[in-house]
TrEMBL record:
Residues 1-24 are annotated as: Disordered. It comes from Kaistia nematophila. InterPro entries: AAA+_ATPase, ABC_transporter-like_ATP-bd, ABC_transporter-like_CS, ABC_transporter_ATP-bind, P-loop_NTPase. GO terms for molecular function: ATP binding; ATP hydrolysis activity. This is ABC transporter ATP-binding protein. Residues 28-261 form the ABC transporter domain. The lineage of its organism: Bacteria, Pseudomonadati, Pseudomonadota, Alphaproteobacteria, Hyphomicrobiales.
Length: 281
């Protein structure tokens, strides 16, 4: 592992230099999409109309206080929730269609593995749902098991695995259909800090190996800054996007980054944004 010395991480770039770069193609477009739920206490605006573009191959983190609509946004991107107005498109398609074609990988906080199925058969499950042959994908499933560091555990049942291992199975499962877009809702929320950091490094490795466009919902400021190219800061009542902060650190990012002063400066910046103190250039 060729860890970068901490001093090699670049300083924060001036905004102007980033804006002149050519723009990569966009995978996900959310255009003025909002969501109001009818509740016993009347209409509840989970998301005011919001707009967001996610570039192909990029890693975007969504962060914000509880109830600001992060999961609702992710569920709209997954086609599991319909916006009341506006549009959500992934590569020009409706998310539901995209999901049915196996182009969308989804892993949520509760790994929700089938307890009676082995690691191998849990990872294979989405293929069966999509009507694809598991036999034809045996090599691929073994590759994924290796990618998430679970070689040797193919036949284990979820109950025989640690929390972190179960999360890795869920991530492998979300990748088995070769999705072009990966949606992760607090996948490491239940893990302790040390395991979480290990999983952050692993997720970066998996993402870098496959360049799958990834959207991660997290409550962890350091997790967001470590992993993302862009952090979308949201605020509640009503749920909305407050600010989008670019994360300029070189990749691969190594655990040393967690203790770098520039890293802490960006975490502070994000914390201020979460508290509604907008950034002024
Ligand atoms: N199906 C639903 N019916 C009614 N209200 C809902 C529904 N789903 C979400 N909400 C409400 O919408 C708001 C946004 O919820 P959402 O789960 O998207 O927030 P969140 O930012 O992901 O929260 P957390 O960080 O706590 O997971 C919350 O007030 C929630 O109670």
């Amino acid at each position: 592992m060729n860890a970068l010395p901490a001093r090699d991480y670049p300083a924060l770039e001036p905004v102007d230099s980033r804006e002149t770069r050519p723009q990569p193609p966009v995978d996900l477009i959310i255009d003025q999409a909002g969501k109001t739920f009818e509740t016993a206490r009347g209409p509840m605006v989970a998301l005011a109309p919001i707009s967001l573009k996610v570039a192909k191959g990029s890693f975007v983190a969504l962060i914000g206080p509880s109830g600001c609509g992060k999961s609702t946004l992710l569920r709209m991107a997954a086609g599991l929730e319909q916006p009341d107005n506006g549009a959500v498109l992934i590569r020009g398609k409706h998310p539901e269609q995209f999901r049915r074609e196996g182009e969308l990988g989804i892993a949520f906080q509760d790994a929700a593995l089938l307890p009676w199925r082995s690691v191998f058969r849990n990872i294979a499950f989405p293929l069966q749902i999509l009507g694809r042959s598991v036999k034809a994908h045996t090599d691929k499933i073994h590759e994924l098991i290796e990618l998430v560091g679970l070689k040797g555990h193919e036949d284990s049942l979820p109950g025989q695995l640690s929390g972190g291992m179960r999360q890795r199975v869920a991530i492998a499962r979300s990748l088995v259909s070769d999705p072009s877009v990966l949606l992760l809702d607090e996948p490491f929320g239940a893990l302790d800090q040390i395991l979480r950091r290990t999983m952050n490094v692993e997720l970066q490795r998996i993402w870098a190996a496959r360049q799958t466009t990834t959207i991660l919902v997290t409550h962890g400021i350091d997790e967001a800054v470590f992993l993302a190219d862009e952090v979308v800061v949201m605020q509640a009542k009503p749920g909305r996007i407050a600010e989008i902060i670019k994360i300029p650190f070189a990749r691969p990012r190594t655990p040393e980054l967690f203790s770098h002063p520039h890293f802490h400066a960006l975490c502070d910046r994000l914390m201020a944004s979460l508290h509604g103190e907008g950034h002024t250039e």
